[in-house]
UniProtKB/TrEMBL annotation:
InterPro entries: BIR_rpt, IAP
Annotated organism of origin: Dreissena polymorpha
Gene Ontology cellular-component terms listed: cytoplasm; nucleus
SMART domains: BIR (SM00238)
Biological process, per Gene Ontology: negative regulation of apoptotic process; regulation of cell cycle
Source species taxonomy: Eukaryota, Metazoa, Spiralia, Lophotrochozoa, Mollusca
Pfam families found in the cross-reference section: BIR
The protein's name in its UniProt record: Uncharacterized protein
Coiled-coil residues: none
GO molecular function: cysteine-type endopeptidase inhibitor activity involved in apoptotic process
Gene3D superfamilies tied to this protein: Inhibitor Of Apoptosis Protein (2mihbC-IAP-1), Chain A
Amino acid sequence: MVFPLPRREEDDRDMRFELQRFISFSAFPQYANVSGLRLAQAGFFYTGLSVTVKCFCCRRNQSDWRTDDDTLFRTGNEMHETDCAFMLGTDTTNIPMHERQ
């Protein structure tokens, strides 16, 4: 039996690209019922393990999905570490899919 290995840190560095984060959700389980696009925009990428996502910046994992409402996405700060540069808006490594106006 072969167990999935976690992604290597070198692969995680590419996740500063929002498009790469979004693409990572192509294999995300449908039963989780969350938006890969919204998660990618919030700085998260799919780890490939169960329904676990990780912030490219603070490295915090998230896998506790409350799919009965969208509060999770409106209060996404709770998903990040309190000192996450992406969440605080001080990260300079994120490359969004589209420039925000």
